[in-house]
Structure formats: structure tokens, C-alpha cells
Amino acid sequence: MTRTRHDARLKIGILGASGYTGAELVRLLARHPAAEIVLLTADRQAGKTLGEVFPHLARLPLPDLVRIEDADWRGLDVVFCALPHATTQQVVAGIPKDMKIVDLSADFRLRDVATYAKWYGHEHLAPDLQKSAVYGLTEIYRDDIAAARLVANPGCYTTASELPLIPLIAGGLIGADGIVIDAKSGVSGAGRSEKLGNLHTEVSEGISAYAIAGHRHAPEIEQELSVAAGRPVIVTFTPHLMPMNRGILATIYVTMTNGAVAEDLRIALAARYENEPFVHVLPSGRAPATRDVRGSNHCLIGVFADRVPGRAIVVSALDNLVKGAAGQAVQNMNVMCGLPEAMGLEQEALFP
Amino acid sequence: MTRTRHDARLKIGILGASGYTGAELVRLLARHPAAEIVLLTADRQAGKTLGEVFPHLARLPLPDLVRIEDADWRGLDVVFCALPHATTQQVVAGIPKDMKIVDLSADFRLRDVATYAKWYGHEHLAPDLQKSAVYGLTEIYRDDIAAARLVANPGCYTTASELPLIPLIAGGLIGADGIVIDAKSGVSGAGRSEKLGNLHTEVSEGISAYAIAGHRHAPEIEQELSVAAGRPVIVTFTPHLMPMNRGILATIYVTMTNGAVAEDLRIALAARYENEPFVHVLPSGRAPATRDVRGSNHCLIGVFADRVPGRAIVVSALDNLVKGAAGQAVQNMNVMCGLPEAMGLEQEALFP
Amino acid sequence: MTRTRHDARLKIGILGASGYTGAELVRLLARHPAAEIVLLTADRQAGKTLGEVFPHLARLPLPDLVRIEDADWRGLDVVFCALPHATTQQVVAGIPKDMKIVDLSADFRLRDVATYAKWYGHEHLAPDLQKSAVYGLTEIYRDDIAAARLVANPGCYTTASELPLIPLIAGGLIGADGIVIDAKSGVSGAGRSEKLGNLHTEVSEGISAYAIAGHRHAPEIEQELSVAAGRPVIVTFTPHLMPMNRGILATIYVTMTNGAVAEDLRIALAARYENEPFVHVLPSGRAPATRDVRGSNHCLIGVFADRVPGRAIVVSALDNLVKGAAGQAVQNMNVMCGLPEAMGLEQEALFP
Amino acid sequence: MTRTRHDARLKIGILGASGYTGAELVRLLARHPAAEIVLLTADRQAGKTLGEVFPHLARLPLPDLVRIEDADWRGLDVVFCALPHATTQQVVAGIPKDMKIVDLSADFRLRDVATYAKWYGHEHLAPDLQKSAVYGLTEIYRDDIAAARLVANPGCYTTASELPLIPLIAGGLIGADGIVIDAKSGVSGAGRSEKLGNLHTEVSEGISAYAIAGHRHAPEIEQELSVAAGRPVIVTFTPHLMPMNRGILATIYVTMTNGAVAEDLRIALAARYENEPFVHVLPSGRAPATRDVRGSNHCLIGVFADRVPGRAIVVSALDNLVKGAAGQAVQNMNVMCGLPEAMGLEQEALFP
After folding, report:
1. CATH no. for B10-132
2. How do residues D125-147 score in pLDDT, each as one tens digit?
3. Which residues in chain B have Cβ-Cβ distances shorter than 8 Å to C203?
4. Is the ipTM of this complex over 0.90?
5. How far is D16 from chain B (nearest CA, A)?
6. Domain ranges of chain D
7. Partners of A312 in the beta sheet?
8. Is C207 within 8 Å of D289 when comparing Cβ atoms?
9. Rounded to an integer, what distance in angstroms lies between the CA atom of residue C188 and that of residue D189?
10. Measured between CB atoms, does C200 come within 8 Å of chain B?
11. pTM exceeds 0.90 for this model
């Protein structure tokens, strides 16, 4: 494939294309009207076509997989990194400076490199780059993203948690203390790794909590809620593994302040997201379901009065691989490159 | 089938045998060494064999299904009612006085008939019988159950919630206020009813919350936690529908009191249930999973420190059709009839 | 919605929009660059928005659901019928003559109305229309479809069976006798009907054959294979219900003729479908999987030598709601209306 | 655990207890009235309790896992081998001669060691022992099994295929040529191995054929059908992977001989298995489903007329881990040791 400027499409590289997030990036970008995938890396699968690794993508005209050290960086406009953490910091540091980067790992999400070191078990390897990274929760940081070179795409659980909580905390409608986030995720969140806990036999017909009080998305959520609250916030966060492939449902328990009732919260969120293409606050009484966002970039939010006076229950649903990863990454690319924000992301959920 | 006292086995009737709970009662009682099923009712399926309605039970020697008004009550020792609510109250009122009854509906669980009327939409039809009913959470009310004629078998969500919470509240280790119960259930909890929301296409590959802040198991949980606390308690309770058939996982968020830490809670629960055959507190750091109780009468409990100081996360798992329904009902029968409590319930979980 | 010719897009009506096939038509046509949905009917759901019936489609600008007798037919270009059989014949007969029709029911698939009457239990209600109907297996009848007013969209099992078999029979590579089609389908093929057999509890964790030797797609398959063979053909066809939502896999057992070997079959099919956008013959040794076509209009075909000399095994996979229903219907509309055949159908499979 | 002859129960060793088959043996044998598990080996998990490897079995009193070379063989009555092939041959050769052995691997199933070498890629390591091994299809070889020291437990697909086919071939009701076995299996048949193809994300919502015309159970089926036919038989056999954990459904296409019709086949099979506790021929028109045997040792068989004259469709269903592995192994142990054949295997299927 000779890489010529025969059209105005953005030249795209995807690092780490052999994981589920990489495949989802390909699915979305291959049909994106203003993008052209010209580089795909995957160390262990180098030399193969992507169709050999992901047969469902075999019909797309795509470059073969190469090792990252064999990558031809010339002419690239945007690089998506879907690499394991730590690896990413080194790789990103070496990407030519004229290319925009959307990093889907956790490596640049935490502004405080000490917090990173604590949760990820090693010193941050690119602290200077960290300072320039913009947190990629599109609806909250849109203007910063538009001006950024390096965007740290948020985690799946964090997107589902932060989209409803940030406006409610920032608006003074709920207290920042005592928030309980009970989150449920499909198995694709665990990646395509050959681990016992991800086997069909182990996952199907069963549910369980994991990483209780110790999941790495907790500090990320707390970082953003602290910004919204203007002071340090600590949350209760419990992830659960569900017998399904895609989807996150976050059931969030909050205490209202200043005499607010649940409908006030719902109205405030609806107003906040009224013009957003991908965040939708449901009518009163309607509960989000992950089946309604499967494969789409939508996030649905519902708000309910609790029976306990002064408390409310907020439920959000998204597809962890789309709005929780690849979809939001493409959304961020659109913002970074001045394209219409929803370009390439219009497709509805696949149901049933 | 001529019903003769050719052996000492208890003669059992099951009313409402064509639902999943009824089938599960048959599965357990048909192999119970001290029981013999002699009556099966199912109004809409009357005239059929149970094997026609549930082919997986076709190999068992069982009486045919009859309408409840055609039931031959003679010689019955124990009657299990697995009927819809309200119906149950009338039927139970008509059962001969010398028979013991385990009712699996919600009809006799709420001691306060006004609370019943509020949540179920009609006046209680057997308020006098209600007074004599014993709440059938075996591990808590064993002595009362042993002396009871009518036992109101607890709900599935309530069993999963009450087993860990009652000792913690009664023991003063946690506060009774602000408890959040985030519960996840398999689809069999919805019964064998032909409803849109129970179709495979609607359920699989998706999760959702339902009856938020309005589920009928909430007042039942509150009733028992209020007894434990010695004052009225109100809880936050959110049920979720999971893409699996069996199992409930309850993730419970509590505030500790009197300087307790999570390990204190775990140790207290472990001590409380040390000699129980069916309630098991896991070692520190181990999380319960519904796959480990599927088809069994076990309830597993794990306790975890929250990252929020002073708070803990308690997780319980059980099979909604067994410990959450038919299994506990048989356990109660064993207690009521002076049999070994685990008789007929020894089977391990089916995994994978 | 005022229906004005403000653009050149085809005005589309969908009759029976509240079923899964109807929803899939909406999903595809709402993003089709040359189509605009202006009429949606659904008798039992009339008065609702489509978003109330299918929340995953709530973000689309769509007309509300109306009863079929309240439909405003003015200005429609193409009507898709996703109605139950028999109903369709009457409705189609009443559609204004200047509109093109793609019928997704079985009502016009069988050319012989006597065969229809035998399998569907009643006389054909529009035998004259039947004569003008074109069988809508796009890759086989493309030219006829281009000239047709009424296209009878093939069944899901039949598409999966006919695409590999017709060229092999017509090419004299396999015998038309003794063909065994063992087909496996997801639950969405049963529609959105509230039937016991479609409940999650009944379907998940289990498989079964149904309508053995009596499924209505058998005569449809036989009709087309008879055309290919030039004489009457009878097939062995067994459908199975799978614990998944979407997808059909047909495992087809054939006897080769004229000394052909399996690779001859594979090469012949590959040549036949070389330029087709949606039918793909896999490299030697690669087996199709339904996960690789989920949500897409692709049909994958693999061919394998049997260990029994002279016999081969052909495997095909497609999404029953897309290439097996709504996708092929849109493909046919494109052909009928002179549009690029793949327009609106380019999306890749959703995996995982 | 001091191993004393304090009771008359058979002392049982299970080699390879950390796989699904091993766990299933434990589940069944731990409740077997005449058995006591005294040895569990698992090389990679040695030193752990079985409950650490399989939490669902943590409530059972069991010996810890040891390496096979650390096994204490003294006093063992019966050894179950659930080891990978080849390994088994060496291990079995070293087991003390006074112990009975049920081998669940493929190592002693093929009487012809040359056929073994061809399909398994290496010379048989215990050809002398092979001569003394009895093929453990209980209903067919019961008398030989009763006298055997070493029983080769059949494969899961083979049990599902041979139970219906052997009597039909032996009885001259069907031809031995042209038999097509289209088999569908749950994922547990692939074991607890951490392979990409067994991940939930890869398996759920999808089906595929694998090892087409090359599965190792084919020669085993052919061996037994050849015995029944009295001459060499070759079959068409295609296994498929299903998105469920347990269960095999075999759809078998046969040609009838001597003027037989399908009902003749059904009646012959029903007569053949009339007194069998675990093989059940369904009434005319009823199709077996794997959900009806899940967790049980039952095998269900249905027979249907094909629409093609002279041909019939036979469908069988069993649980691959029970009648297809551990259950039949226990059944064989019962026969070998003179116990009631159904002892410890009475439990009904778990549904839903």
C-alpha cells in the first residue's frame, strides 16, 4: 500500500490492533468518511492480515499487521494507542510530534503521576508528556480536547460514572460524599486474554463482584469528581462481571443536597446534555438497559427517587467498547481534527 | 395411585406445580428420603403428567396434575403452596387443619396486613391465619419454625439480604440506616410467564435495573431488619435482571459502628453461621459467585473493607430457586417435621 | 411530518414495524443515504413512537406507529411488508400500483399456490399477484428483481441453504438427491412473540431440534433447488434452536458427482461469488462462524472434504435478521430502484 | 486423613481432579453412598484444596490435591483417570494391579493401536494393557464391564451417537453406510483450558463447526458401528461448538432398510432400552432437548420420519460431563464393583 495523499482523509495508525478495542477502532474507522487506516500494529500477530486475527473484519481493505518497531510513521495524522499500560508511555513518547494521539490505555488519565505509581505499581515513564495530556471525556472537556495533541481516553467504568455525576456535583445537586457506584460490565472489558476467569464455562450462568474496593478506575473517577466538587472526593466503587459480551450498567446511589428531589436531578442532567449527540437522559420512570446501546456510542441515563428520603438512584448504560473505549476515541479524534463530532459514529444499537 | 401408609414417609402435596418453583420442589422432594409426593396441582395444566409440562422430570414416578378443587387432601402431611399471591390466602385458609404448610408466595410474609395491602394492592384475605404464620428464614427463626403449622417462606432477594444483615445489625456492628442493597437476579425469578421482558432475545446480552425503589421485597427486608434493629428501618434496594437463569448476588453497602472494621464483620458472621449447613462465610478476600451455588441450597457471604473509611461491602450469593425458594422450603419442612435439617438438600452446586 | 419532495430520497413505508424484522429494517433504512422512512405501521402498538416499542431506536427521527388502515400511502416509493403470513396477501393486494414492494413474509415465495395452501393451511388469497412476484434471492435473481414490482424476500434458512447449493447443483458438481441440511438458528428467528419456548429460561443453556421434517422453509428450498436441477428435488432439512439471538449456521451434506472433489466445489463457489459484495467463500480449511457476520449482510461459505469418499460438507453462516431478512430486503430495494447494491449495508459485523 | 477401613465404602482415587471432568467425578462420588474419595491428584494445583480450585466443591470433606508421583496408592479400590491422552497410558500402566480403573481419556478406547497412533500422533504406550481394556458403553458392554479391571470410558460425542445407532444397525433396521452425525456440544467439552476459542467473548452469541471430518471421536464411533455391522463402517461426523456450557445434541441422518419406517426404529430402540435407568426413548413426535438432561446421567432419544422416503432422523441428547463422561464412569464403577447400577446417579436434570 503506497501511502499517497490522493485524498483528504486523515491517515490513521492503530497500535495494538489485535485486541477487542483495536478491532472496534477498525470497525468504526474503516467506515469513517474522513479517515483511512494505513497502519496496524500487533506484536504477537505481526505478519498476519487483520482478517486472520478477526475474521469479521476480513472484508475490509486494510494494511497487514506489523510489529511496532517496524511501523512506517510517515504521513500519519492520528495515532490510536490500544496498548497495555506502561508500554504505552514509552511508545507515545516516541511518536513524531506532528501527529495527534488518542491513547486508550490508562497511562495518561491520572494527572498526578504519584497516584499513577501507586495504582499501577511503577513510576510513570513519561511525566512530562503527562502534563500535556487532556482527559478525553468529550462532553466535559470538549474545548481542551479540540486543542490537544495527546488525549487520554477515559475508562469504560469511569465514563459511565462521570457523565451523570460530574454535572450533579458541579451543580450542587448532590453531595460528593457517600456516593456508591455499583457497576456491572460485560466480559469484553477484560480484553482478549486467555485467562481462566474469561472462559465461557466460568462466566456464563453466573455473576460475581471483583476487585472490590481496589479497581484502578476508582482513582480516575475520584480525580474527576474532585475537580467537579472542588475538593478531594472518595467513592465506593464495585465492579461486577456479567455473563454477556458488551455493556456497562452503573447503578449509582447519591444523597441530594439543598432540598433537591430526584426529578430536579433528572431535569438538570437533561438540560446539560440536551444538545449532545451521544448522552441521553431518559424520561421520568424509564430505566436504561445495556441492550439499547449495544454497538452504539450512546450513553443512557435515568434518575429515580429512592424510598429513603433525600436519596436518589442514578442509572447509566453504555457499550464499554464504544462510548467506553473506541467510540469515544473516535469522537475525540473528530473533535481534535475539527470534524463533525458524530462522524462515523451514527450507527444505532444492534438489538436483539 | 392408592395412597396407603406403606411407609413412614411424609405425604406431600405441591400446589402450583407447573411453575419453576413447583418444579424445583419436585426435583428436591422426589429424592428426599423421608418424603413422598402424592398430590400435584396446576390449574391450567390439569390432566397432564408433570413430564409433559417439565420433560426433565418425566422419569419420576409422580401423580398427574389436578385442579386444586379436585385435590384429594386425605392423608397429606405437608402442603407446599407455590401459587400466585392472593390466591394463596384463600387456598391456605381452606387446607385441613392437621396439615403443615410451607407457603412460597408473599402472602404471609408481612406481619402487618396493612403493609401487605399497601404493597399488593388489596386487603389481606386471611388476617387471622397471618397471625399464626412464622417467617421462614430458617437460620434465624429455626425454633419458631419447628413449632409452626404455617411457614411463610422468604423471598429470594430477601434471603440474600437478610442472612448477612440481620446478625450484623443485631450485633451492633453496622448501622441500620443508609444500607444500600444492589441485587442482581437470574431470569427464573420472574417465573415461567410468557412475558416480553422474559424472552431470550430481550434478556440475553443485556442487563437492566427494574422496579427501582418499588420492589415488593423491600418491605419484607425492612420488616426483618427492623426486628433486628429494634426500630423501624428503611433500606435502599435495587433489583437487576441478569442474562442467566439462576442465581442472586446481593452487593450490600453498610456503615460500620462502634469502631468496627470489615474483618470484625466477617468474623462475627463466620461465628454466627459456623455450624450452619447452608450459610458459609468465605475467607478474607474471597468473593462469592453465583456459579458456586447453582442448584444447591448454599448461601455464600463475603465481607470487604471499602476504601471509604468506616464503610464495608458485604456480598452474598445464592440460587434463587433453591435457598431463595424451594430449597429453603424443604429445609423448613425438615425443621417442622423433626427431620435432619439438610435431608434431601445435600447436593453440591452444578458447575460449570 | 409533512411529506414533501424536498429531497430525492426514496419514501419508505414499513408495515409491521413492531417485530424484530421491522426494527432491523428501520435500523438499516434510517441510515440509508437514499431512503427516508415516512410510514411505520404496527396494529397493536399504534399511537406509540417506535422508541417506546424499541428503545434502541429512540434517537432516530421517525414517524409514529399507525394502524395499517390509517396509513397515508401518498408519495410512498417502496413498501416493506413484515407482516404475518396470509395477512400479507390481503394487504399487498391493496397497495397502490405505483409502489414497489418487498415482502418479507412467506406469502409470495412459493410459486405454486397449491404448495402454499398445503404448507400454510389455507388457500392463497392473491394468486394473480403471486404470478408477478419475483423470488428475492439477490445473487441469483438480480436481473428479475431489477425489473420487479413485488419481490418475495427469501426465508433465513433458505438463503443460507440456497446460496451454496444452487450453483453447485446447477453446475453439476453435486447430486440433487440425498442432500441433508442441518441448520441452527438464533432465537430472533422466532420473532418477538411471547411464547413459552422463547423465554430465556427455556432457551439458554440448551439446544433442540424442532419442526423436524416439517418446517415451512423446506418447500421453499426445494422449489429453488428444483429449478437449479431441472427436476423435482426433495431435501432433508432439520432446524435447531440455539441459545443465542442472531445467526444461522447451515451444515450441508452433499454427494459429489462427475469425479469432483471438495476443492472443486470450493473453487466453483468462489468463482461464482467472486464479485459479490455479500457472499464470501472462505479459503480452504476455514470454517464460517455466525459471530463473524452478526449484524452484517454477509454470508460466509466454507467447503470441506468429508471422510466418506465422494461426499463433501458445505457450511454457510449469515445473520438471520440481516442477510436472512431485512438486509437482503434492502439489498433488493437497491436493485429494484437502481441504487448501488450495497448502499446502506456496508457495516461490518459486531464482534464480540 | 488416615485411611482406615472404618467402613465398607470403596476407596476412590481421582487422577486429574482439576479439570471439569474431575470436578464432576467429585460432585457425583462425594455423595455416592458406597464410595469415599481418598486421593485427588492435580499436578499444577498440587498443595491446594479442591475448594481453592473449584469453590463450588469447597463444602465437601476431601483430601488435598497432590502430585501424581506423591500419591499414596495404598488401600485404593477404584482409580478414575481424567488425564490428558498419552499421559494416561503411562500412568495406568503403573497403577497397582489390584485396583480397578475407569479411564476417561481416549487412551484405551481404540482397540487397534495402529488406529490410535494414526489419530493421536504417537505410538500407543501400553499396547498390552489395551488388550485387556473393555469399552465402557455401559448399556452395550455391561457384562464385559462387570468382569473388567480396566474400562475405557467412551467419549461424549460417541456415547450420544452409539446409543441410538448400535441397536439399529445390529437389528438390521438401518444401513451402516451413509450415516451423517451432526453433533452440537457445549463448551465444557473443551475442558478448563485457557484457550482463545473458549473465551466467553468468542463463544457466546455464535456457533461454528470445528474439526470437520477430522475429529478424534470419529474412529471411535466407527469402531463400534463396525462391530454392530459386522464389517467396516465409515461415518460422516461434524462437531459444532454451542454457546452453552453443558450438553450434546446429536442429529443423526440414517437410511432405513428392509422396508422399515421411522416408527419401527423408535419401537425397536424403546424395546432395547426399556429397562435401562438412563437411556430413554421418547414418545413419537417428542424431540429431545439438552436442557432436559443437564446435570443428569440420562440420555434421551427421539426418532422422526424424514420427508425423504426411506430415511429417518434420530436425535439424542445427553450431558457431556455426566453420561458423556463422569456419570457413565460412575455407572461403570457400579457395574464393575457389583453395586446397583444407578447408585449415586439418581439426580434429575437441573432446569431451568
Report:
1. 3.40.50.720
2. 999 999 999 999 999 999 999 99
3. 200
4. yes
5. 17
6. 10-132, 157-320
7. A254, A305
8. yes
9. 26
10. yes
11. yes
